[in-house]
Amino acid sequence: MLLNTMFNNPLGVTREMDRLFDSMMSSQPLGFAPALRGQWSYPAINVWEDEDNFVAEAELPGMSLDDIEVLVTDDELTIKGAREIAVPEESRPLRRERASGVFERTITVPGPIDGDGVEAKLTHGVLSITMPKAEAAKPRRIKVRAAKSLPKGS
Amino acid sequence: MTAGTSIQKTAPQAVEVNAAPTRRNSWTYRPNVDIFDAAEELTVIADMPGASPDSIDVSLESGILTLQADITTRHHPGAQALGQEYGIGGFHRRFEIDESIDAEAVSADYRDGTLTIHLPKAQQARRRRIPVST
Question: Which fold has domain A2-85+97-136?
Answer without folding.
Answer: Immunoglobulin-like (2.60.40)
